[in-house]
């Protein structure tokens, strides 16, 4: 969490930093700040609240320097106050930080004995003081950063300005994401590429443990022994437009509307003779998955729900044992996993701390690991044995939408490939599902996203409630999980998801007059059963919404019905989630919440 940026070159650093921070704001928006070297002096401006407030504050000053660093914060240590906003200065060091220094309290006590005094509650200010203290002892900034970071436990991406080195930004990373962008006589440091796409698509990624010295003339990267190292130069395939709203009122709505294209992109090049073909993603991925003892899908939040889809379809279609685990649990439960198993880690950002830790653990235990990742060259993408990129383009809204759709599409395609490889389905069935994914699904989502008011009308009803329930059976149970998460995440309506058969085992006591109960039935074999569950809620006064393929549902199935314009179970279930995303979106807009940046959250959860 937190976004960091740095700039050195000929442009006005304040403007570059502000533009970068606006792009990074999805990573955290509790407070923001920047430090610019202006007329030989380091000037720091910070505010509690969003980047817009920082922009107002910075514009009231005459900041004309061309080197500086900036930060947008998701609070970990200390409340989201002005005092705790970054950058933090101690002695000659002014620093911004993304990550957590776990042993900061112990370091702080030692530094206090040296005479350092602290004005914030943050671990970052302690890091700045430690580097300053090491600088006094070592004299050389690289050595100081090296020996200070050696004493730190935890994760960090630092960008810093050091008095006495007016043309340099120093950077260091361990685990937290950090890229260095290169341009004509200018250089950038950022948490991710979207922050600098306006200026350059060229970048490199320092490895965990690297320290970098960045000037407008060039970039030098050093490993943890301070030996110079060359890191591969990369060119981003994303462009500025893909990271902007493009006329939509919110990123979330734009990203839902991008789902049909994203599905086509993720499938493109992964079909041969009408059936899935992952050979372009690495040798024998499917054969390996088909021959393992067990498959695990491991992820967090929405990505975990895509993992549940994967589990369900793999078991149903390929008849292979597949477990879906929350990464935060998997990493600490000493999982029974070994060299005969496969672990699929699903992550939009590729940087989620728990998912990355789960991946490392799976590798340590000898499992075959596969990342399903959106962000190119992110940590999970680089560390997994193989990676399947989901090619959704940047997802900016904190609520994940198109990332889920493509993750679920990949999981379905993979399950079909495994089922075919293990002889559990014939080529005709594989071709049918592949074709439904390629053509029917994008079309169905286009129709849903173009909805002219029906979903809004339902949202208007839901927006009056403080509680809601999503139910489903089979794959619909997992669609319910994602629908419920989306609604609570952005509308702040308390919502829960249940297997449809479970309501009567306790939850019905919560159903009363007007409480929304939303059910989907994409698996037609379970349609009647799910409808019965919804009727039980209706009998207790619930306001019911029924979602199912257009050819089986009738107007009488609920107070409101969303007819999905597609037929087959798996495809319909993915599109049901799109319907839920739209329902959540319109509900949140009606409740006037901050749709793209819901309170207390951040897009990229790089702390555990
Ligand atoms: O980047 P990741 O896919 O690893 O992120 C995992 C979750 O943090 C994420 O899906 C989160 O649940 C979404 N913001 C929910 O909309």
Question: What do we call the CATH topology of the largest domain?
Answer: Glutamine Phosphoribosylpyrophosphate, subunit 1, domain 1
CATH class of the largest domain: Alpha Beta
Radius of gyration (Å): 25 Å
The percentage of residues in β strands lies in 15-25%
Bound compounds: 5-amino-5-deoxy-1-O-phosphono-D-mannitol
The second-level CATH architecture of the largest domain is 4-Layer Sandwich
Task: Set out the fold topology.
Blueprint lengths: L2 E6 L4 H12 L6 E8 L2 E8 L2 H9 L7 E7 L14 E3 L2 E9 L2 H11 L8 H16 L2 H11 L2 E9 L6 E6 L4 E5 L2 E5 L11 E3 L6 E5 L2 E5 L5 E2 L3 E3 L15 H7 L1 H9 L3 E2 L2 E2 L8 H7 L3 E5 L1 H18 L3 E5 H4 L11 E6 L5 H12 L3 E6 L5 H5 L2 E4 L12 H20 L5 H23 L4 H9 L4 E6 L2 H17 L2 E6 L16 E5 L6 H13 L3 E7 L10 E5 L4 H22 L18
Parallel strand pairs: 18-19, 18-20, 20-21, 21-22, 23-24, 23-25, 25-26, 26-27
Antiparallel strand pairs: 1-4, 1-10, 2-3, 2-4, 5-6, 6-7, 7-8, 8-12, 9-10, 9-11, 11-15, 12-13, 13-14, 16-17
Helix pairs in contact: 1-2, 3-4, 4-5, 7-13, 7-14, 8-13, 9-13, 9-16, 13-14, 13-18, 14-18, 15-18, 16-18
The structure holds 5-amino-5-deoxy-1-O-phosphono-D-mannitol (M6R).
5-amino-5-deoxy-1-O-phosphono-D-mannitol (M6R) binds next to helix 9 and helix 16.
């Amino acid at each position: 969490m937190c976004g960091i940026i740095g700039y050195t070159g000929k442009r006005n650093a304040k403007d570059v930093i502000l533009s970068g921070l606006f792009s990074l704001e999805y990573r955290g928006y509790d407070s923001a700040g920047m430090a610019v070297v202006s007329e030989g002096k380091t000037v720091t401006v910070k505010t509690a609240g969003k980047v817009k407030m920082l922009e107002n504050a910075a514009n009231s000053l005459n900041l004309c320097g061309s080197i500086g660093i900036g930060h947008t914060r998701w609070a970990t240590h200390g409340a989201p106050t002005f005092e705790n906003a970054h950058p933090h200065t101690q002695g000659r060091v002014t620093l911004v930080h993304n990550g957590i220094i776990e042993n900061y309290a112990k370091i702080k006590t030692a530094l206090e004995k040296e005479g350092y005094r602290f004005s914030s509650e943050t671990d970052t200010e302690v890091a700045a003081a430690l580097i300053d203290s090491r600088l006094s002892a070592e004299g050389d900034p690289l050595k100081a950063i090296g020996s200070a970071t050696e004493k730190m436990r935890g994760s960090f991406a630092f960008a810093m300005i050091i008095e006495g080195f007016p043309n340099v930004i120093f950077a260091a990373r361990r685990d937290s994401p950090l890229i260095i962008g290169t341009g004509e006589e200018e250089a950038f440091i950022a948490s991710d590429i979207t922050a600098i796409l306006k200026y350059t698509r060229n970048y490199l990624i320092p490895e965990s443990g690297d320290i970098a010295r960045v000037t407008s003339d060039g970039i030098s990267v050093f490993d943890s022994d301070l030996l110079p190292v060359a890191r591969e130069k990369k060119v981003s395939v994303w462009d500025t437009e893909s990271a902007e709203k493009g006329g939509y009122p919110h990123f979330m709505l734009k990203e839902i509307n991008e789902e049909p294209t994203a599905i086509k992109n993720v499938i493109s090049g992964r079909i041969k003779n009408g059936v899935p073909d992952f050979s372009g993603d690495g040798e024998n991925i499917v054969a390996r998955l088909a021959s393992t003892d067990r498959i695990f899908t491991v992820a967090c939040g929405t990505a975990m729900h895509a993992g549940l889809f994967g589990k369900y379809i793999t078991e149903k279609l390929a008849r292979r044992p597949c477990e879906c685990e929350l990464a935060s649990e998997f990493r600490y439960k000493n999982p029974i996993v070994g060299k005969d198993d496969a672990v699929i880690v699903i992550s939009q950002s590729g940087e989620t701390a728990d998912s990355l830790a789960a991946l490392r653990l799976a590798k340590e235990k000898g499992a075959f690991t596969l990342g399903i990742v959106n962000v190119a060259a992110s940590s999970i993408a680089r560390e997994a044995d193989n990676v399947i990129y989901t090619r959704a383009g940047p997802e900016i809204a904190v609520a994940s939408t198109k990332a889920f759709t493509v993750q679920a599409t990949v999981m379905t395609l993979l399950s079909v490939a495994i089922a075919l490889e293990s002889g559990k389905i014939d080529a005709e069935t594989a071709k049918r599902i592949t074709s439904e994914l390629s053509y029917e699904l994008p079309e169905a989502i286009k129709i849903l996203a173009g909805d002219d008011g029906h979903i809004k009308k339902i949202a208007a009803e839901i927006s009056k409630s403080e509680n809601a329930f999503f139910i489903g059976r089979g794959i619909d149970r997992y669609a319910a999980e994602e629908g419920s998460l989306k609604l609570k995440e952005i509308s702040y309506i308390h919502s829960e998801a249940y297997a449809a058969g479970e309501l009567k085992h306790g939850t019905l006591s919560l159903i009363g007059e007007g409480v929304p109960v939303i059910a989907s039935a994409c698996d037609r074999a379970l349609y009647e059963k799910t409808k019965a569950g919804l009727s039980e809620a209706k009998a207790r006064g619930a306001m019911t919404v029924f979602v199912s393929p257009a050819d089986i549902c009738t107007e009488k199935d609920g107070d409101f019905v969303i007819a999905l314009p597609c037929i087959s179970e798996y495809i319909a279930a993915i599109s049901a989630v799109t319907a839920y995303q739209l329902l959540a979106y319109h509900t949140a807009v009606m409740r006037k919440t901050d749709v793209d940046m819901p309170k207390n959250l951040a897009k990229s959860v790089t702390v555990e």
